[in-house]
Design a protein that fits this description.
Strand content: 15-25%
Largest sheet: 9 strands, mixed
Strand order of the largest sheet: 1-2-3-5-4-6-7-8-9
Bound molecules: beta-D-galactopyranuronic acid
Length: 356
């Protein structure tokens, strides 16, 4: 089992400087992920426009409902800021997948484990949410492209065409397009965050769009933060059999993971030198916390090329301890697969260092 090296180009040349990385190797790795894993996303259509409505919520919080409108479809996001806000705030953009959407009814309050809106705003951040099902529903069959955005933007059905996770990541970039125009948001301090399938999406969005100043993945596991090679729990075949989240080329590796030209530490490397947070849960064997941490250790190499520390953790890590010393933060909370207030508190502590 040979792990592909971040700092050795396909030509065999050794990458020894950030200039070489940025000029050549980063693009090379990005293109491999596009072609073999997530699929190639289209450009943003030129005729996008925005529309915003404002709703006053409890606790002096204003919710802005922003629509990114195209001729045939639209993407919506909700932005929560203090009502009396006068300055440009750092923000979290949370990618919410279908089950999360269903468990957060904003009309019933603003305090949820997976998105504690009140706490986040209290800590001085705007919080923005984007629901994935409006872009493409999470389809559990082999015919995923009949619905959602694939109806509107040409889906060519090539083996490297974009698939569902890439479409959600693309949606996050469209929300970022809007946030750049929002007077409450500091566009240079927007973190993209997601849990589980949305954690995979947040990582791909962060790799694809350098406007995201920080990236947070919670329990993202297989084809997220976790290394594929040597992983326990979910494998490429499991994920491709159960979902249609990745491009057709990825399915070819179902029984041959070791032949993939990339591994997931290289996805984390694409986020460098920006701050990155990888969080795990101790009982989440399907995602495999050890493998998520191993990926952070390997990705640290690229942060070091920039003269920065990657992840700083001792040999035997302790649960519930935040490791925030480097540019890659890590914690493993005690418990099951899930995004909780405990995680959010630690993410906010880390972003206080880098986005405040
Ligand atoms: C699981 C899937 C994981 C994870 C999770 C989720 O069934 O196998 O990779 O993404 O779903 O998104 O909730």
């Amino acid at each position: 089992m040979k792990i592909p090296e971040i700092l050795t180009a396909l030509s065999g040349e050794r990458i020894t400087s950030t200039a070489m990385w940025e000029k050549h190797r980063r693009d090379e790795i990005y293109t491999l992920f596009e072609n073999f894993v997530y699929g190639v996303a289209p450009e943003c259509p030129k005729d996008m426009r925005f529309s915003v409505k404002t709703i006053e919520r409890e606790h002096n919080i204003t919710q802005k409902k922003a629509d990114m409108i195209f001729p045939n479809f639209k993407i919506s996001a909700d932005i929560f800021v203090p009502t009396e806000n006068t300055k440009k705030l750092p923000a979290y953009l949370l990618c919410m997948h279908q089950f999360e959407e269903d468990s957060c009814n904003i009309d019933e309050g603003l305090d949820f484990e997976i998105v504690p809106i009140l706490d986040i705003v209290e800590r001085g951040y705007a919080i923005v949410t984007m629901k994935t099902s409006q872009i493409c529903p999470d389809v559990f069959t082999n015919e995923p492209y009949g619905d959602g955005i694939f109806k509107w933007i040409d889906y060519s059905k090539r083996d490297n065409s974009w698939s569902i996770i890439a479409s959600w990541a693309w949606g996050l970039s469209r929300v970022m397009d809007y946030l750049q125009t929002d007077e409450d948001i500091d566009e240079s301090r927007v973190a993209v965050i997601g849990h589980s399938r949305s954690g995979k999406t947040a990582l791909w969005a962060g790799a694809s769009d350098k406007r995201f100043a920080m990236v947070v993945s919670n329990d993202s596991g297989c084809t997220g933060a976790a290394m594929t090679r040597g992983k326990k729990g979910e494998h490429v075949k499991d994920i491709n059999d159960a979902f249609h989240w990745f491009c057709e080329n990825y399915i070819k590796y179902n029984d041959d993971e070791d032949m993939l030209p990339i591994d997931q530490h290289m996805l984390l490397a694409l986020i460098a030198p920006r701050p990155l947070y990888v969080a795990s849960s101790s009982l989440d064997e399907w995602a495999d916390p050890d493998s998520e941490l191993r990926s952070c250790r390997f990705a640290s190499e690229i942060y070091e090329l920039y003269g920065l520390d990657g992840v700083i953790v001792p040999e035997g890590i302790e649960e519930n301890i935040p490791y925030h010393g480097g540019m890659i933060a890590y914690h493993c909370k005690t418990g099951e697969h899930g995004l909780t207030k405990q995680d959010w508190n630690l993410f906010l502590d880390f972003s206080d260092i880098h986005l405040k």
